[in-house]
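User: hey, got a sec? need Antibiotic biosynthesis monooxygenase folded
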Amino acid sequence: MQMPRNNRSFTQLMEFNIEPQWQQALVSALSEQTERLARDHQGLLSASIQASEDGRRVLNYLQWQTREAGEAALRSVEAGEQDFWRLVHRAKAVTFGSFEVLCNIERSLDNALHCQLVD
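Assistant: Yep! Here you go:
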């Protein structure tokens, strides 16, 4: 099924390189921040926070209904709490990326795979 270009969802990816002793604190802070975003902003479709097994990286994935919803939420985070930003500044490197979703493959409750292409 093709979706019109203006209906494409929007994904934000943030990868943090951090010392292993700070990984769990960053995961906790990102979890709290993501819960606030879901509660305070319309349009969050899904989110995921992933930690590398070596303790040195954390990946934060946020998918929004629209680019506008994601950007509005990001602006609120930029003006966010000092404790959160102090922890983020412990990262050796942070990579931010924004992506337009072109294809989703999902498994339904009946175990069927569905592929949704966006033109």
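Quick note: The helical segments are 20-40, 67-78, 82-88. Let me know if you need anything else on Antibiotic biosynthesis monooxygenase.
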